[in-house]
Please model this.
Amino acid sequence: MSNSENEKHLATVSVRKNLENFPSVVVERYELALEKLTERLAEETCEQWALEGLEIARKTVRSWEAAAEFFDASVAVQRQLPSGQFLKWGKTGNSLCEDSPSLAVAYFKSSPKAMLRLRPRYIDDWSNVCRDLYRGTWKSSALACRLFEATPELLETLSFEEFCRFGGFLEILSRRSYDQAGDALGAGIGLFPKIPDDADRFIELAHIVAEKSWRQTTELFDSASGDFDDETTRFFDSGVANADFQSSGNYEFANVIDIGAKHTARITASLTQTSDNPDDLFDNRSGDFDDASSNFDGDTPANCNAHIEIATSDDNTTYTDFRTFVIGEYTARYFKFRVVLISRDNASTPVVSEVTVTVDMQDRIFSGNDIVSGTGTKSITFTNPFKSGNYAVGITGQGMATGDYFTVSNKTINGFDVAFFNSSNSGVSKTFDFIAKGF
Model:
């Protein structure tokens, strides 16, 4: 054995010795794989492969599990890949292990079967599609691992480009619900073999539904089977049954508006809405363009709407009935609001994107004339408190001598204190007028 060959042999022996620091299964799988790979690979390639596995094992406390799967999968994967791509496959798994050992475990476990249907140049792309589902949480990790594990089965029907788009759909849906994304993945495994010629179009539609009405993805997958035009009672594009919306529904604001006391306030509101009819599809139209009895694009706005309702109370216990809100003045202390959504044909639905309510407290004026202060502090109490203590107070003292002055203190929503003094800073009695303005 030459010096160079001896050094390389010592390298693989050194790796084995270091792997003894981990559970025995790691060394066992390493030795089994090394025995077979040395018959197929150059010494230098074997050395790089062994060092890659050792680096994976050292990543984290649990990364030895990923190293064990790496060694276990290596022989089968090496049969499918040239040496350079084989080493790159290991580095990709090493990179995944930095994010999460669980991702690397799923990647290595699924690799032998995945490589039967995956071109070597797609290895990194495959890894990235699955990795994009991972956001550092156990639910995102579980979803990403499931996609790794499902890859061989999905690629039996989908092209790699379709697989990537399906992964992109799952990433969009997972932002809303990991559980629903997991359900869609499971449903897709069973669905795609039934619609091999339409899988690409189905995935494109799934993207649209996930972005615009993500909750309907469940029914989309449940109902999609056969040819696109086979279904007549449920539309493939929307995945929902015809006319299955509720006729009405309410969204009540989470908080009651309290303006502090019973006042008259001017209230304005705005509501931004669009409308949608997932049953009113181009595929569902028949005849010539000008045969339609109404708008070809549908009558959704005429068949649904949303409006705001208001209820008021003076004690936050007994409220008036909700009534349709109109801009104007309302006298009460407490105000409740809700949005009512109505579908007249059970197929159309209003889509509310923004609701705002503005309560404008009108400026009010309290005043008093010819009030005697006395030599001490005079307290002024309002008959009806202000909403805010940031009101303005004007005071005019009668018969003020040179050097006389006054102070205003203890301003609250209920009143304020005033005291008059002479030039010697002694309290004096004065007759005064006041005016307070605020809301």
In short: The longest helix spans residues 3-19. The first strand starts at residue 248 and ends at 252.
